[in-house]
Amino acid sequence: MKEVFDEPSKAEVAQGVVIVTGPDSVDVAMTPAAALRSAERISSAAVEALIEANGPNAKDMH
Fold first, then answer.
1. Is residue 27 part of a domain?
2. What domain range is 24 assigned to?
3. pLDDT value at residue 55
4. How many Cβ atoms sit within 10 Å of the Cβ of residue 18?
5. Tens-place pLDDT, residues 1-53
6. HEC letters along 13-36
7. How much is the pLDDT for 36?
8. What gap in Å lies between CA 19 and CA 35, rounded to an integer?
9. How far apart (Å, rounded) are the C-alpha atoms in residues 4 and 36?
């Protein structure tokens, strides 16, 4: 398994491009559209991970 970080990445705008930096030397430049889609995917995966961490009955609680 990869190393797990508890520190969130940072995001900023430079000349119309989204720059994401973070732990483990993350340094990515994306178009706004790619950044939005990435944010959606990360958010969805984070929700799945939280549900998984809280057990199989966590889905029934919503």
1. yes
2. 10-61
3. 78
4. 19
5. 889 999 999 999 999 999 999 999 999 999 999 999 999 999 999 999 999 99
6. EECCEEEEEECCCEEEEECHHHHH
7. 98
8. 9
9. 23
* CA 31 and chain centroid, separation: 16
Q: What is residue 61's predicted lDDT score, i.e. its pLDDT?
A: 53
Q: Could you tell me the two tokens for 28?
A: 């990515």
DSSP letter at 45 equals H
Residue 32 domain flag: yes
CA distance 46 to 38: 12
Is residue 1 situated within a structural domain?
A: no
Residues across the chain: 62
Q: Would 2 be classed as within a structural domain? A: no
Q: Report residue 2 as tokens.
A: 């990869």
The C-alpha atoms of residue 20 and residue 42 are separated, in whole angstroms, by 13
Phi, psi of 30 (to 5 degrees): -135, 155
